[in-house]
Amino acid sequence: MDKLIISPAPHIHSGDSISKNMQAVIIALMPAYLVALYYFGLGALIVSFTAIVSCVLFEYLIQKFILKGDTTIKDGSAALTGLLLAFNLPSNIPIYIVIVGSLVAIGIAKMSFGGLGNNPFNPALVARVFLLISFPVAMTSWPVPEALSMHYLDAVTAPTTLRNMNFGVQPDTLNLLIGNIGGSMGEVSGFALLLGFAYLLYKKVISWHIPVSILATSAVFIYILHLAAPESYIVSPIDYILSGGLLLGAIYMATDYVTSPMTKPGMLIYGVGIGLLTVIIRISPVYPEGVSFAILIMNAFTPLINTYVKPKRFGEKVKAKK
Amino acid sequence: MRTFRIGGIHPAENKFSAGQKIKTANLPKQVAIPLAHYIGAPAEAVVAKGDIVKVGQLIGKANGFISANVHASVSGKVNKIDVQLDASGYKRAAVFIDVDGDEWLETIDRTQTVVRECNLTKEEIIKKVAEAGIVGLGGATFPAHVKLSPPPGKKAEVLVINAVECEPYLTCDHQLMLEKGEEIMVGISILMKALDVNRAVVGIENNKKDAIALFQKLAKEFKGVEVTALKVQYPQGGEKQLIDAAIGRQVPSGALPIEVGAVVQNVGTTFAVYEAVQKNKPLFERVMTITGKSATNPGNYLVRLGTMLSEVVDQAGGVPADTGKIVGGGPMMGRSLMTLDVPMAKGSAGVLFIQNMESLRKKMQTCIRCGKCVNVCPMGLEPYLLMNQSEREMWADMESNKVMDCIECGSCSYTCPSNRALLDYIRFGKSTVGGIIRSRQARKS
Ligand code: SF4
Ligand code: SF4
Predict the structure, then answer these.
(1) What pTM was estimated for this model as a whole?
(2) Does any ligand 1 atom lie closer than 6 A to the CB of residue B407?
(3) Does domain B287-359 have CATH number 3.10.20.600?
(4) Ligand 1 near B328 CB (within 6 A)
């Protein structure tokens, strides 16, 4: 102890870090990833690998050669964006589209705003919506699940549950749970996604507020529609939240730290907003997949929510206990 | 199990010195007894160079309302009255005494018999507490007698005893409770009499099960005293948090506990009150914890005021080789010390050695807006926002976002995954805003 360190309190730290949080989300996504590899095989492997590598690479190149500063690829957030982007893509999508998506996610949605912490919109979702508009056909022809498939571009495609629902076809709840349905590679298995949710709650990476408010709101809303017009809305609330990207969006995309509100009441407002918007957009036959748009719209309201919804202050309007 | 309702963290407890019997530290050769406390005006010296003093003799007289008497902790000759670097990092007035023997004032009852009976009136008790120079021993060192005299129009209803010791590492209060339980109980009944209340709640965190059991047993013999086990949660020792946890009332922003009828005293302070009222012993020694992950001999020591911390540390096995930082007090709210050659003061609850590795702060990264700081803030503030506004000198916004409510507990900085120095910036903003508010009030009056 030649030199003592002098610094203000506190003198200990929790040891939490950005990379720990990112790692936890990546671990939570693993069950769903395994399901994707099982049902979509080779295609899922190629798409996810391309997305992760190109996201990390773009972040590195932009920070190193355009911003000429420190690189932050070690914090794991670019890798997570890549994985999430892949989860939102069909597994038979050509490599160049994946690369374009990664460039949009990292270059436009993240780095041009100043990098992690400053981006107003969820990068993976911005990329997804960009691709949906630019490559509508490739983005909406989903392969049919096939155990350990060796097909990539040549996979057989079919309409998804959501589109079927709009045509009045009942989905099968069990298949929705295990993931034996068509869809973007990471969204198919409700069970795997919920398993990851439990892990994130246990690790206290996220709280229940955003996912639960989104799911509850959309379930209640669709049930009300069902009561109002049983012919048009035949689907049960449970099947409804299990289908499409709703679980993936509610648990893993809407809860992105940077783009979601900071306070518990703010999170509930945000979640209810996403839930309502998702159902409204899903009614449209053009965009049966509404959750991405819903999240991006509510991302835009996050700064406003943070400004006006304050946490409950100590000593404010409380009842005395006992 | 009860606890406070907003925020809070649970750092590793690391109570290495738990269960260590209180050892009496050796008498030093010289003491430098600080006349100043952390809060309030310094006492005025009433002895001069060359005076012979006895243990317990008044050497500094309280100077103003928020000030406390200071007594000699040793017997001997006053060497000088001079400035001395203290644990807060400032040089302040102290009385230096060369120790000669250990001769106590005859009025002090040095026997170990517990005196339960107290026939003094409320006013007499408060006077004795004031004379004995008792301040809050939890760290804030607010004069105890001031808290016992609620402002006109306010009436105390419940006495809350702070026995949570929520700072990691520290164990001095815990050990004192185990060894002086009955005395503390008598102290509580004396405080109840002084405040004219018939209910007292002792809040003890659940990591001190032996103390909870002991106090619950003792409480049967003392009317109106309840013992409540509290969930281990930092900063439960904060006055507002403790009142919320123990009796479920929340002190409004900017108000004092008396607003909700509560008065809080720490267990150590309560023991000092017992000694002052029943044994005529002024406050000139206290128990402190010497500890750390590499400390060879973590323990609890009874130390005379003015003893150099270095001397106590030597008796506890010295400074561990891998020490990178020495903290006076606990790891969450203590101050890092430049040197151990500072005197023991009334508010010194411990010396903590932090290992090299843990001493360095990790690199600060950008805020990822995770909201964890908001979630843990026990006052319901938005630390990320306050830091941001402090950086940009947005004082008015900081004020409307309640920066003055911040209790500087450090839970936000402790938690932030981006290692942001939230409290550093908030503290700066708080003192600036505090200055602005004071000058605004001065202009008005
Ligand atoms: S130091 Fe202040 S702002 Fe930070 S958690 Fe404690 S009370 Fe809240
Ligand atoms: S804990 Fe740190 S990173 Fe998270 S919101 Fe607060 S300041 Fe930002």
Answers:
(1) 0.92
(2) yes
(3) yes
(4) no
